[in-house]
Amino acid sequence: MKKRNVILMITILYTGLILYFMFLGFNRLDRYEDYKSYGYEFLFIPSGVPLNFPRFTFSWLYDFGNIAAFIPLGILFPLLYQVDYKKFIGWFMIVIFGLETIQSLVHLGTFDVNDVISNTIGATIGYVVYKVGFTSNLTLKKLIASSLSAIILLVCVMIVSEVLDKRVSPIQPLHAIKEITGAKPLTNDVPTFTVAGNKIEPQFNLYSNEGNTTKTYTYPIEDKEELTLFLNLGIPDHEEFKGEIAIITDGNVIFQKNEEDLKESETIEIMPLEIPLYYEAKKMTIMITGNIMLWDVGFTELKHWWE
Q1: Which terminus of the chain faces fewer neighbouring Cβ atoms within 10 Å, N or C?
Q2: Is pLDDT of 16 > 70?
Q3: What sections of the protein cross the membrane (predicted)?
Q4: Domains and CATH numbers, the chain
Q5: How many other CB atoms are found less than 10 A from the CB of residue 104?
C-alpha cells in the first residue's frame, strides 16, 4: 500500500508538471493576447514528422520534449491501475485531445494534432518500458533493459520520421527536367552580355527569343512538390528595350513582366527572383517575347533525403 501511495504521489506531481508546461510554460501568459488575436486555432492536419535525427536546435529539443515528457506517464498510470495498452492509450488520447482543445479555447496555445501524435508516441514508449521492466519486482537488469527499450524506440521513431520527411532540395537547373516540349534553353557555350551595365555570365542556362515571335518552353511538373523557381531576367544593353516574359501553369499566369515593369523598377533586376509554386500543377510554360532574357533558371522541390 505504501509503495502504491508513493507511485500515486509521483504521478500527481508529474502530471501537475506536465499541465504547468501545457498551460503556463514557454511564456504562455505573456503571449495570451497574441493567441487571442489568432482566435481559436485547431490544426487537424499533421504538418511534419514527430522527431528527426538530433540537430541540437530549439525546434528539435521541443519535438524531443513532446515525446520524452510523456514517457513517464506511460509507466506510472499502468503501474497504478494495471490497465492493458488499448484501454490506457484510449483514455490517454481522450485526455490529450481534451487538454489540447482547452489550450485553444482559453487562448494559451493551439490545438495541434502534431502534439497529440508526439504525446501518444511518448506514452506508448512508456507503456513498452513498463511492460519490459516494471510489471514485477524491479531489478538492475530490468532497469537497463527498460532504458535500452526506450532508447531503441526513440531511435526507431527518428528513423521512420527521416524516411517520411521531405526537405527542400538544392537548386537544380530547370533543364534538368528532361521531358521538355517546345524550345530548349541554351546550356553549352552560353554567351556573356551586359544588363544595365552589369556583365552577365550565365552559369548553366539561357532562355531567350529572336525577333518579334514568341518562344515557349514547357515542362511537366506534376511530380514536383512545392516547386520554387529561381531566375534572373533583363534586357541586354544595346538591344531594343522591348519584351515580355510570362510563366504559366495549367493555363494560369503566375508571373509576368514586360519592359514597362523593368522601367518602373528603375534598375534592371539582376538578382535571382524567387517564384513559389505551392500548389499542384501538371505543366509549366515559359513564354518569351521580344528581347527579354532569362538566365540561370533553376528550381527547388521537396524530396526525401535518398532522392
Answers
A1: N
A2: yes
A3: 7-26, 60-81, 88-106, 143-164
A4: 2-165 (no CATH), 172-303 (2.60.120.1060)
A5: 19
Q: How confident is the model at residue 1 (pLDDT cuts 50, 70, 90)?
A: low
Distance from the Cα of residue 287 to its chain's centroid: 31
Exposed, middle or buried: residue 94 (CB in 10 Å: 0-12, 13-18, 19+)? exposed
| Listed residue (61, 63, 36) closest to 47, CA to CA | 63
Q: Cβ contacts of residue 95 below 8 Å, gap of 6+?
A: none
β-pair partners for 199: 194
| CA atoms of 133 and 145, how far apart (whole Å) | 7
Mean pLDDT score of the chain, rounded to an integer? Answer: 90
Distance CA 152, CA 155 (A): 5
pTM above 0.70, yes or no: yes
CA distance 118 to 50: 6
